[in-house]
Amino acid sequence: MLFAAFATGAVHARVAAPFSYRQRVGLAMIIQSIGYLLFGTAFLLVGVQSEVGFWMAQLATFLVGAFQTIGEINNLSILNSLPNGLVGAWGFGTGVSQFVGSISYVIAINLGISYSTFFLGLIPVYLVYWALFLRVEKLARLNEKEHAAAEDALLTEESRKSLKLTSKTFPNVFRMGGIIILNMAATYAFNYLIESGFADRATLHPEPFTAAVAVNSYALGVSVYGIGTMLARLSVAWFPTSRIGLITILQLINSVLWGFEAYYHTIRSFGLPGWWFYQFWMFFVGWIAGMSYSNCLNVIGLSTK
Questions:
Q1: Helix (H) or strand (E) holding 35
Q2: Residues 195, 187: contact at Cβ < 8 Å?
Q3: pTM for this one?
Q4: CA distances from 63 to 3, 23, 28, 199, 252 (A)
Q5: Quick one: pLDDT band at residue 301, thresholds 50, 70, 90?
Q6: H runs (alpha helix) in 148-216
Q7: 270-279 exposure pattern, b = at least 16 Cβ within 10 A, e = fewer
Q8: Which residues, including other chains, have CB under 8 Å from residue 24's CB and lie 6 or more apart?
Q9: Which residues contact residue 33 at a Cβ distance below 8 angstroms, ignoring those fewer than 6 apart?
Q10: Between residues 161 and 119, which one has the greater pLDDT?
Q11: pLDDT band at residue 276, thresholds of 50, 70 and 90?
């Protein structure tokens, strides 16, 4: 999934320029729906055609990761057309979605709902997403009209086109936002190393513990990560900072420590308190991730370059 997200981001910068934001997000929504359809089908094949189900799940993971990136990139582009205060509100919303998604998964599976039913049930949610996206896009247009200096400065659906990322445009892009881009990329690399890698490895096989915090440790960790992200992204509206390099260093330290924990399992050797500590630690990881994300966006929005 991470490879798909990285590769798609690079391809998007090259080929997406001729298409409108609405077209790009619409495509992302359709492909992700197909991804969840494949996930649901893959679980039905467990024990019947397990190998086919495995590769179907891999394809679904690639599609969901790839087109999640496209959706996020274009939502961020529209965000720049909205008032600065909405950066915090948008970040809060993404944190809420991560928490609700993770905790819904834990509840559904523990209630006996099948994996297949759960993933197939996610598809209708995209209809709600599409309706909300159209609303946000409309607000962005209205905000542009209110703040445009002249009529010819307005961006229309046809004229709002992104520049392709080429060898000629890259130096200018890097000059205007290179430090911010590097910090955001580094922080998110560390985030995903922890959330999708080290935390998963560290929490495998909780036996002999049967407490919910141990058995569901990874899913709960993703949930509290979302809470940390949510609160941190919301806080930028009141406590912004331009020291994004310090935030990146903190997440690097988190990544290294989680890497050691994934290999040595030192914290979980303390018993049940160690499993609770994982949750507090994931909250802190999410907080740092949210701080990096929102403050990078805030610095971009305030930049005069």
A1: helix 21-44
A2: no
A3: 0.70
A4: 11, 17, 9, 23, 28
A5: low
A6: 170-193, 199-202, 212-215
A7: eeeebbbebb
A8: 12, 16, 70, 71, 74
A9: 123, 126
A10: 119
A11: very high
